[in-house]
Design goal:
Structural class: alpha+beta
Helix content: 40-55%
Shape: globular
Amino acid sequence: MSREEQIAQTFVELADTFVDDFDVIDFLHQLTVRCKGILTITDAAVLLAWPGRRLYSPAPCDPSPALNRLLDVALEQGPALQAYRTATAAPHGNLARAPDHWQDFITHARDAGYGTAHALPLRLRQDTLGSLLLLGTTAEPLPPADLVLAQAFADAAAIGLLHSRALRHAETVNEQLHTALHSRIVIEQAKGILAAQRRTTLNHAFDTMRRHARHHRILLTTVAHSIIDTGRLPDPSSSPRGDTPPTRDPSTSME
């Protein structure tokens, strides 16, 4: 598939939020996968705002422990927080030229092997839902054309999320976003269990979980909970089609 075809497919995927079994976690993960495949970056992550004006980190694309630690710092300082607060792209690429008050972020980024960091807001007019963080291992910032494309992906994702919320009761998608904020821990636990059982890598275990969720049209967190509770992928016959999380259970509140 050519780069142009990948770009077109990405916009189609980001617009596909009008389905009954819309899964916010899988949607955000797919955004990071497409960014890694199309842009000249090493890793990508989405940081969401929930509740109020704080940022949370739902589910980066196949995170390493070093990336997870960096994302924890990114919630408090760095380009992702700046892009969210200003609703504009963070202007810094090469970490050698980043502001001094990002020192913790810079240190953790370098420890994780990254040399560049860009962030774009997930925004639609006055609504900013979070930010898209792009990380690279080289010292060269992203080309301007790639930054424009990344912002278009972020804008399309924000439109998709807001349209999905408009088509449902607001609390349904908000609860999914809320649940997504804690989903990373559950998914990481399930990945570890499945990888150990099948003697495979964490990335391969995650791909297995994701394919199972998509094939049977159930939420990724449902698959993860089944693995943790029973040690098995869920039996589709026991899960309702288009499985969705509860909307009033505060114990599932949140990436």
